[in-house]
Amino acid sequence: MTRRGLLVSALCVAAAAAGGPRWGASLGARQPDLLYVCIQDDAKIAVVDMGSRAVLRTIDLVKLGFPTTAKPHFVVVEPDGQHWYVSLIGANRVVKFDRVDRIAGQFEMETPGMLALSGPDTLVVTRSMSAVNPPKRIAIVNRGTMKGDEVDVIFPRPHPMAASKAGYAYTGSLGVNQMASVSLADQRVEIVPVTGATHAFVQFALSPDGRTLVG
């Protein structure tokens, strides 16, 4: 990645490139790799063509019926690019869009934060970093129906999120030295203590083979 590319990545609140069939002006035209950038204070999402590095369009959430304080925070995209999801902190919901930016579903929860996809149909959601005292729960949502449950992880302020192909999700606390491993099949939660000075876990990522978690 170029230095300019690294700078763009550092500045993006949330972004993802969509694979497979993608948005395009006409059938058969080159389908661009897209970058979704949350403009949190303006309640907008910029859609960038990664090839030309030009903004293709900007989605105004207020025009779609959401409040000016919607605060879009993080985006994840389906592997085939057909749908993408954004957490709206101030609107208390996660919104599903199709590849031409039409609303395809919503899941309501208090102050959603980070998102991760797992398997063909699961979306996992944590709480916003800006929430002072959010519920000690994460949400496990079916992406097809946009219905789901909230699972108690015991510790306060669960924020980071990563999910594996093997069906596990990982989160951690912004306030105490604890992490959690969650089995998505049966919603079993295992708490893992972390030694050392007080940490604030902001985000996690998994290695491609699923063996290493980075925070």
How much of the sequence lies in strands comes to: 35-45%
What is the correct CATH architecture of the largest domain?
Beta Barrel
The coarse silhouette is: globular
Percent helix, as a range, is: under 10%
What is the CATH level 1 assignment of the largest domain? Mainly Beta
Topology:
Blueprint: H1 3-11, E1 34-39, E2 44-49, E3 54-60, E4 72-77, E5 83-88, E6 93-98, E7 103-108, E8 112-118, E9 122-127, E10 137-142, E11 147-152, E12 162-163, E13 168-172, E14 178-183, E15 188-193, E16 205-206, E17 213-214
Antiparallel strand pairs: 1-2, 2-3, 4-5, 5-6, 6-7, 8-9, 9-10, 10-11, 12-13, 13-14, 14-15, 16-17
What does this structure look like?
By secondary structure, this protein is mainly beta. It has 2 domains: 1-108, Thrombin, subunit H (Beta Barrel); 116-215, no CATH class. The protein has one helix spanning 3-11, and strands at residues 34-39, 44-49, 54-60, 72-77, 83-88, 93-98, 103-108, 112-118, 122-127, 137-142, 147-152, 162-163, 168-172, 178-183, 188-193, 205-206, 213-214. The strands form 5 sheets. It has a 4-stranded antiparallel β-sheet, with no helix packed on it. The protein has a 4-stranded antiparallel β-sheet with strand order 8-9-10-11, with no helix packed on it. Strand 13 and strand 14 form a beta hairpin. It is globular. Residues 1-28 have low confidence and may be disordered.
At a glance:
This protein is mainly beta. The chain folds into two domains: 108 residues, Beta Barrel (Thrombin, subunit H), CATH 2.40.10.480; 100 residues, no CATH class.
